[in-house]
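[User]
Protein folding is very new to me. Any chance you could explain this protein sequence and its structure tokens? I have pasted everything here:
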Amino acid sequence: MSIVVLFDQKRHFYHAVLSVAVDGNYFILDNMRDQVLPDSRLPDYQPLFSTTGGKGHLHGSRTGNMQVASRMSLEKVAPGEGAAY
């Protein structure tokens, strides 16, 4: 069972729901709906953060081939200021 903070892309607002895993499927309990639905029926819900068993998880999505991180020697990193090229 997880609490999931998400962005509803259809209604344009942030929201929290309860997600329950059953046999590899995730069901969403949402106070904005009258029925429990599988996550596959909620494509407009973009998960941002979740917490399960005392652990937090950040979620994201890939956008093409955009590079989001790189590897470099620690000698090039100035503490508190990022990389010094």
